[in-house]
């Protein structure tokens, strides 16, 4: 009986996180209210507070849930690849504005919130390091196999990540860059960093 009750609690918590993530994507991290989550699920706000204690804890866990989901997609996509070039293509396709990850708008929201919320900042830095490690591992493998030419993979990853972040804000916030331009410029920038033809990343 204890195991069954515990399982029910776990499932409900996951449902709350999934619903909160969907709401955050529509409303934004700062605008989200516990009452919104409760209404979406058809439960009382007290149940949400039972699982998370505070709104800040809920927001931090929901952000973690959303980004973990996106990073899991990246890991699964890269694992299916047969070579470094294919890994790079799959990583870009499965992550961020260059791909289908719905959580990217939450990333941009989190950048602003992280300046005032240390918990969000810590989560954000952790996942940024994880994304960079994926890119660096792919580039390093490509250099070792002779598929890529790159004298400093770590520096290249820093430039690629910074470009992706900046272009993402331009595309999703300022609307001064189109999705087509974003994908094209990212391919060209990455190609320069790893010494390949941009068309190979299409």
What is this structure, in a nutshell?
With 202 residues, the chain is mainly alpha-helical.
Structure description:
It is elongated, with a radius of gyration of 19 Å. 76% of the residues lie in helices and 0% in strands. The protein is an all-alpha fold. It has nine helices and no strands.
Strand count, sense and barrel status of the largest sheet are: none
Mean pLDDT: 88
- What is the strand tally? 0
Rg (C-alpha, Å): 19 Å
The 3D shape can be described as elongated
Are there runs of 5+ residues with pLDDT below 50, and where? Answer: 1-8
**Percent in helix:** over 70%
Give me the number of helical elements: 9
Through-space gap between termini:
53 Å
H/E topology pattern: HHHHHHHHH
Structural class: mainly alpha
| Residue fraction in strands | under 5%
Task: Summarize the SSE layout with pairings.
Elements lengths: L1 H26 L6 H8 L3 H8 L2 H25 L4 H11 L9 H10 L4 H28 L7 H22 L4 H16 L8
Helix pairs in contact: 1-2, 1-4, 2-3, 3-4, 4-5, 4-7, 5-7, 7-8, 8-9
Keywords:
76% helix, elongated, disordered N terminus, single chain, 202 residues, mainly alpha
């Amino acid at each position: 009986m204890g195991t069954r009750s515990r399982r029910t609690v776990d499932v409900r918590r996951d449902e709350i996180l999934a619903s909160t993530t969907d709401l955050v994507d529509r409303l934004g991290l700062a605008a989200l209210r516990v009452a919104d989550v409760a209404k979406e699920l058809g439960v009382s706000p007290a149940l949400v507070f039972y699982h998370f204690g505070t709104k800040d804890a809920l927001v931090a866990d929901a952000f973690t849930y959303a980004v973990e989901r996106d990073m899991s997609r990246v890991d699964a996509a890269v694992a299916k690849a047969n070579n470094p070039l294919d890994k790079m293509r799959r990583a870009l396709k499965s992550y961020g504005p260059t791909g289908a990850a719905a959580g990217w708008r939450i990333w941009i929201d989190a950048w602003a919130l992280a300046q005032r919320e240390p918990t969000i900042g810590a989560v954000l830095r952790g996942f940024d390091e994880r994304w960079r490690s994926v890119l660096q591992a792919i580039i390093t493998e490509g250099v070792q196999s002779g598929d890529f030419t790159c004298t400093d993979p770590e520096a290249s990853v820093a430039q690629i990540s910074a470009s992706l972040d900046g272009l993402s804000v331009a595309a999703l916030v300022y609307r001064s860059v189109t999705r087509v331009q974003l994908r094209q410029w990212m391919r060209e920038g990455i190609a320069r960093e790893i010494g390949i033809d941009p068309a190979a990343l299409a």
